[in-house]
Amino acid sequence: MSAGFDELLARARGSQRLWAAAPRAEMDARYARFIEVVLAHTHDVGEVASLVHKPEAEALSAELLPLLECARFVMHKTAEILQDQPLKVAVAPHKRHVTVYRPRGVVLLIAPFNFPLSIAGSEILFAIAAQNAVVLKPSPHRVEAAYKLVEWLTEAGFPPHLVQVETGDAQHTQALIKAGVDYVTFVGSTQAGREVAKLCIDAGVPYRAELGGKAAALVTKDAPMGRAARGILWGAFMGGGQVCAGVQRVFVEDAAQDALLSAIEQAARDIDEARDLAPVVSPAARAEVDAFVDDALSRGGRVLVEKRRDDVRAVLLACDDQDARIFREECFGPVAAVCTVPDVEHAVRACNAGPGDLIGYVFAKAGRTKHLRDQLRASTVMENDVLWTYGMPEAPWGGGAQSAMGVTHSAEGLRQYCQALFTSYEQVPVRLDKEPFWYPYTDDRVRALRAGMRTLYGKSGEKVKSIASFLFRRE
Fold first, then answer.
1. What percent of the chain has a predicted confidence (pLDDT) above 70?
2. CATH number where 347 lies
3. Assign residue 387 a region: left if phi > 0, alpha if psi is -120 to 50, beta otherwise?
4. Are residues 21 and 158 in the same domain?
5. pTM for this one?
6. 103 vs 132: CA distance, rounded Å
C-alpha cells in the first residue's frame, strides 16, 4: 500500500472514530444544516445545472430533490432503523439475544457520471448515517460535482476527512480496493461492476453494486394514453437517456398501438430541444445512439420522434422486430423503441426477455399492475409513472443478478452499511456446569436430545411420550 493510501485511510479512520462517538442529536443537527445548505443552492440553480450537465429543471428534480429527501430520511429514521434488535430464540428462551448494528469503517464509493450529486450524495448520506467514513471515487467526467458535495458537507459541519475525494483511473481504483477499505459501493456499468466485484472478492472486501440494463414499459389497451406518452418520452430522454432506470423498450398491445403512437407524436411537440434536452457524455455515446437507430431502421423500423440539440440526437422509434439491438442490448443514451405485441401476455414475456431487471413500468388502468406484478422480473415496478423511485429513500432500490448486487436506500440499504453483530447473554446465573449439547456424548445424552426434539417439533402424542422419556432419563 502506498504512503498516499496510508495517509488517506488514516485520516478517514480517525474522522470515522470521532463521528461514531458523536451523540445522535449532533449527527441529526448536521443533517438539518446540510438541508439548509442545499436549499440555499436552489437559488444558484444555473451553477448546479452546469456542474451536473443537465437542464435547470432536471438539476432541481433529479439531483437536489433526491439529495434533500435522503438527508431528511436518514435524519429522522436512522436511530430507529439501527437501534438494537432484541430477538426471541425458541431453542434458548432462558437467554437474552440481541442484534446490534455497527459501522463497517471506511467505505469506498465508486460513483457514476450521470447523477453526480444525487447518486453520490445519497450514498454518502446513508454511509455516514451508519457512522462510516467515505472515500469518494467520482467519474472523471464529473469531478467538480464531487468536490462540491464535500464543500456542502463541510459547510454543514460534518467532520474534516469524513468524506474525501480521490480521483484516478481504473488502476487507481483497483489499488484503492486493495488498500484496506472495509466496504465498496459501486454504481455504474454492468461490465465495470462485475470487474469491481471480482476485485472485491479477491481482496476479501464486502461490496454492493448497482449496474445497468435500462427499463421496459408495458402499455395496455386501457392505459391513460396521454400520460403514457409523456411518461415514455420523459423516461427515454431525461438526463440525455443516461439513466439506469430509463425507458428503452416499450411493448404495447395491438389494440392500443394507434392511440399510443398518436399520443406520443402529440406529446413530443411540447419538448423544447434547447431548454429540455441534456447532453450525452461523449462522442462515443452519440455514435452508439446512431448505431442503435440505424440498426432498427434497417429492420423495418421508423422514426416517431426526433429531437436535436447541438450534437445531441434524441430518438423514439417504432420497430416490431424484437431481434433489433434496442430490444436486446442497453444503449446509454436518448433512444427508445415501441414494439407492438398481440396482448398483455406477450408484452410481459418481452419485458422479461430484455437485458435489465432493475425497474419496469406498466401503463394501465389504475390498480391493474397488482395483477401483473408477480409476472414481471423487475425488482421495482411503477404504475403509470417512471424513473423517480430513486427519489423515494424509504423504498429499496436494487435489482436481480443482471442489474444489482444488494440494495440501496430503505432500512435494508442503510443496514448494508453496517455489520450486524449478534450477542447471546445470560439472563440469570448459570446453575448447570454444561449444556446438553456438550461432551460427553453418552447414550443417555442421545436419548435426551431425541426426546427434546420430539417435544419441540412432534405431534401432541409424541410430545407426551418424549417428555416422560426426558423426565425419567438417567444421566
1. 95
2. 3.40.309.10
3. left
4. yes
5. 0.92
6. 6
